[in-house]
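pls ignore typos typing on phone
adenosine-5'-diphosphate + seq
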Amino acid sequence: MYMIINSGSSSIKFKLFSTDKDEKIITEGIAERIGIDGRLVINYQNEEHKFEDKMNDHNIAVEMILKKLLSLKIIENYNQIETVGSRVVHGGEQIKESVVITPETKEIIKKCIKLAPLHNPGALVAIEAFEKIIPNVLQVAAFDTSFHQSLAPEQYLYPVPNSWYDKYEVRKYGFHGISYKYICEHFGKVFKKDVKKLNLVICHLGNGSSVCCVKNGVSFDTTMGFTPLAGLMMGTRSGDIDSSVIEYMVKETNSDVFKITQILNKESGLLGVSEVSSDMRDITAAASQNNSKAQKAFEMYTQRVAQTIVQYLNNLDREKIDGIVFTAGIGENSNIVRQAIIDKINIVNLEIDNKKNLEKYDDFKEISSTKSEIKIYAFRTNEEQMILNDIKKLKKNK
Ligand code: ADP
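k done
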């Protein structure tokens, strides 16, 4: 069995896959409120099993997950888990693709804690917990940053003193890379195109949102930056704003940089503007009821994505553009958001086919009309599948 885990700052999501050819999901679940009180939910054979036990850290959470898998008889022993694949947010500049966990790769994850202080520690503790509980299990890490290591200095450097980069590693890293890589490989597979020749603008619109310009199969530019706070407006994140606002608001509210940055991360974006919710479903529902703040949030969100698409299309060779792809929670599901974004693009003749935009789909669908100059698609992303694919590749090369 393959165990794929995704550690957040206070949660661990997991999916257990069979090692059979069809790689079906045996069970999935989430350990959450780690360090607060602790709740574990495991879905198995259409039943939800809930446990409320204190989980002080990610180490205890992993122990709990494995113990409950045993007690629910989902696994008979830990050795049935032959590989663990972890999503790690930050791999810095050294890591350009998924890696087998070794003392050296763990050291790199550790070194990147200062760049991703909320996410990398949990991932590392979880990896070490699996090491302890299932000695010799093969562990692989896939990184959100690695897909963007192809960015050129013009793209990744900020116009600040060189020493900020040379001494302090301040640069654009970009995130959502596992999702972007999956979309590229899957797009190549379904349309039988060489991934190395793909030219796409991919909009990963979830609670965290970003856009990536893929040129010749690699990331050419992306909107998130040194941290995921940069770029588009998101569920609770502001995205790009004038950085002087921080100093100004510190003074005006007699606050500190930490608190203001916290507000920009947790209380801004759709939530801050709409004062309704960070969830796009609530925003579109409130907007349709003429809630003016929700309407404003919706306009601001879709405008920013539209502007980015235009900017990123301009990086690509017109004749070689394979499409614009919408993915992640909002991109996959909200026909209203997709329509509003495309409606805001005037410089290129893009058109959505209403009927196709509304159609239900499993994996992907084209949503552009025959008149559209560039094809437009909705694709379901699958980060776990991407990690699985990387595991298999690494196993083959071992
Ligand atoms: P993340 O992984 O960043 O937490 P997701 O990719 O799961 O986020 O996306 C969450 C977002 O997707 C939420 O804003 C949610 O409202 C939105 N979403 C999910 N389903 C729909 C839907 N049917 N229509 C509109 N938005 C949706």
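The chain is about 40% helix and 20% strand. The radius of gyration is 21 Å. more later
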